């Protein structure tokens, strides 16, 4: 009987550990820079996220769809309940004026494993 009880406790503990995981939740998924001039082509924003899980969250990778967009992110593990940031810099220098929408793909050890963030705006031609 003791062996059966011990095995049941170990099974429940194992299942609890298996389902424990990190969970990333962003405050927003899109940032709109609005309209800005070609004479000030560099725009910056910050995405904030929270680890809603019960294991430390690790950002493995943040990759932009274009070289004109550069993400930087919290490199240390984010403890459950704590916040982290992903800062994005868009540089439209040398790009054609007009509307743009860029994607930043985030990969984590949590759920979901992959999240896409978006930055967009309209760069107007500089007035002469």
SSE order and pairing:
Layout: H1 2-19, E1 24-26, E2 30-37, E3 42-51, E4 59-64, E5 69-73, E6 83-91, E7 98-108, E8 114-124
Parallel strand pairs: 2-8
Antiparallel strand pairs: 1-3, 3-6, 4-7, 5-6, 7-8
Describe the fold and architecture.
With 128 residues, this protein is mainly β. Helix content is 14%, strand content 49%. It is built from one helix and eight strands; from the N terminus they run αββββββββ. It has one helix at residues 2-19, and strands at 24-26, 30-37, 42-51, 59-64, 69-73, 83-91, 98-108, 114-124. The strands form two sheets. The chain has a four-stranded antiparallel beta sheet, with no helix packed on it. Strands 2-8-7-4 form a four-stranded mixed beta sheet, with no helix packed on it. It is rod-shaped, with a radius of gyration of 21 Å. The model has no long low-confidence stretch (mean pLDDT 91).
Structural class: mainly beta
Spatial separation of the terminal alpha carbons: 88 Å
| Residue windows where pLDDT falls under 50 for at least 5 positions | none
Strand/helix succession: HEEEEEEEE
| Strand order across the largest sheet | 1-3-6-5
Residues in helices, as a percent range: 10-25%
**How confident is the prediction overall: mean pLDDT?**
91
Computed Rg:
21 Å
As an assembly, this protein is single chain
Beta-strand content bin: over 45%
The largest sheet, given as strand count, sense and whether it forms a barrel, is: 4 strands, antiparallel
Let me know the number of strands.
8
Shape: rod-shaped
Count of helix runs: 1
């Amino acid at each position: 009987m003791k062996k059966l009880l011990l095995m049941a406790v170990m099974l429940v503990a194992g299942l609890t550990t298996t389902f424990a995981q990190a969970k990333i939740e962003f405050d927003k998924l899109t940032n709109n820079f609005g309209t800005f001039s070609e004479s000030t082509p560099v725009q910056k924003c910050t995405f904030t996220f929270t680890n809603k899980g019960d294991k430390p969250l690790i950002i493995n990778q943040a990759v932009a769809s274009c070289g004109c967009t550069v993400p930087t992110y919290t490199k240390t593990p984010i403890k459950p309940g704590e916040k982290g940031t992903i800062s994005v810099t868009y540089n439209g220098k040398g790009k054609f004026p007009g509307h743009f929408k860029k994607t930043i793909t985030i990969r984590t050890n949590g759920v979901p494993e992959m999240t896409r963030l978006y930055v967009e705006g309209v760069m107007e031609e500089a007035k002469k």
